[in-house]
Task: inverse folding
């Protein structure tokens, strides 16, 4: 019995699991209030990412493009940035932040983004002297990394550009990572119950926007410029995802001596326990009885399911590394066996991740962790009968593998667009663990009814 970590050596990608770095930059940017990112590249670099966001959240987001064409390959595209910034400033009087997100084409061209931003500031001072608009360079070339590393780089760039030393705020920085509005709401519930004054980065809870009586929709991020500036004056930082926001917490620790804790991504009971202990350590606030009650309710719900239905069920999980590792830990809590974990990019830190090292020490079954994987890696292993699975967990892009193989699948991660309302429900925290466990059980129950495999058990439990 062993846990092995390998990197897939491939010349190409078949059915990619992730998209590129600029997508991560755009997701981080739309979490900021009064912010419209300007993607410096072809129109497709914006259009297809906006489509992914619309599919997942069922909402539209303002993302601009410098619309670079063939002439930029010869003469450079920096003029398009200056024009784009001016157009955005004229069209949106409330605009306060414009991230400049690079793409593969503009990085290869070698456009001087920082120099162009200096020129943009001169233009803004002349054309809009009464306004302050912050321009944030985000270098996210598509030919390396993924949406995961792009998100981390974007959050770090926002902090590097905007954070500034001032009087202590007494607030806690919480870097959420690439999570759903339902997860952010759950996290804010914990902070409220503990009486913790916190800055949530990036606060996407308003992505689940209400339709108001005046027929307007308020779909926007809630993290403000002031929130970002005051991150340097916080009592500490907690990052929920090591590879999605952890870099920004590390930067604040190095540059401003803000204590930082890299908390386990709070999937399942033990990881949520650790998160609450970390919040308590940094703030001095006790964990209230209300959250102990939440924990007990989740434990009771999972106990009802674990041994009878989940024990020894073999699971494959794919997606963002923090998500996949956290879900694997959750599966092991409820007696399931995550036999295959797939990360969609390569990062030398994955193999040294303390959670991965702990898995290698503790698993009592064969587990394979594959970095630099695509969805063909999952499909091939199923078709070649290298693995036998009872469940697949991952985002909607892998659904046809599950359909063709006749394996039940639980949608989790980004993007999930073929089930209604998943973005509203937490998968993190105690309520998230309970919801996730019940979703797994109901998915398996439906499959049992469809296949007539052990369907009788549903009449007895």
Result:
């Amino acid at each position: 019995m062993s846990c092995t970590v390998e990197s897939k050596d491939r010349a190409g990608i078949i059915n990619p699991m992730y998209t590129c770095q600029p997508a991560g930059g755009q997701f981080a940017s739309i979490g900021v209030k009064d912010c419209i990112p300007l993607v410096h590249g072809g129109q497709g670099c914006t259009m297809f990412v906006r489509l992914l966001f619309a599919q997942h959240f069922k909402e539209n987001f303002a993302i601009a493009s410098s619309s670079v064409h063939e002439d930029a390959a010869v003469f450079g595209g920096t003029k398009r940035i200056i024009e784009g910034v001016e157009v955005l400033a004229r069209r949106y009087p409330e605009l306060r932040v414009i991230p400049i997100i690079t793409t593969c084409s503009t990085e290869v061209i070698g456009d001087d983004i920082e120099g162009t931003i200096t020129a943009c500031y001169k233009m803004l001072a002349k054309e809009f002297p009464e306004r302050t608009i912050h321009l944030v360079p985000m270098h996210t070339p598509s030919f390396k990394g993924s949406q995961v590393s792009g998100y981390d780089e974007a959050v770090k760039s926002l902090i590097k550009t905007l954070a500034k030393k001032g009087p202590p705020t007494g607030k806690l920085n919480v870097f959420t990572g690439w999570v759903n509005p339902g997860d952010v709401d759950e996290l804010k519930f914990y902070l409220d119950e503990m009486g913790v004054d916190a800055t949530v980065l990036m606060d996407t809870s308003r992505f689940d926007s209400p339709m108001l009586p005046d027929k307007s929709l308020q779909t926007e991020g809630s993290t403000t410029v002031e929130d970002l500036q005051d991150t340097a004056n916080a009592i500490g930082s907690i990052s929920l995802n090591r590879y999605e926001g952890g870099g920004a917490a590390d930067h604040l620790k190095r540059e401003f001596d803000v204590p930082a804790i890299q908390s386990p991504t709070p999937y399942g009971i033990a990881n949520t326990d650790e998160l609450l202990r970390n919040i308590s350590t940094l703030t001095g606030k006790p964990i209230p009885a209300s959250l102990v009650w939440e924990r007990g309710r989740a434990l009771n719900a999972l106990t009802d399911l674990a041994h009878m239905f989940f024990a020894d069920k073999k699971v494959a999980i794919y997606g963002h590394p923090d998500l996949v590792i956290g879900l694997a830990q959750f599966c092991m809590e409820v007696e399931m066996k995550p036999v295959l974990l797939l990360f969609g990019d390569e990062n030398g830190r994955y193999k040294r991740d303390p959670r991965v090292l702990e898995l290698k020490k503790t698993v009592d079954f064969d587990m394979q962790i594959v970095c630099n994987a695509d969805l063909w890696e999952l499909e091939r292993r199923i078709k070649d009968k290298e693995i036998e699975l009872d469940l697949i967990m991952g985002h909607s892009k892998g659904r046809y593998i599950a359909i063709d193989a006749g394996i039940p699948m639980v949608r989790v991660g980004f993007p999930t667009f073929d089930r209604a309302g998943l973005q509203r429900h937490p998968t993190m925290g105690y309520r998230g663990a309970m919801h996730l466990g019940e979703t797994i059980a109901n998915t398996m129950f439906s499959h049992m009814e469809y296949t007539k495999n052990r369907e009788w058990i549903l009449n007895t439990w």
User: Anything to note?
Assistant: Residues 429-451 form the longest helix (23 residues). The chain has 18 helices and 14 strands. Residues 306 and 334 are 5 Å apart (CA to CA). The chain has a mean pLDDT of 93.
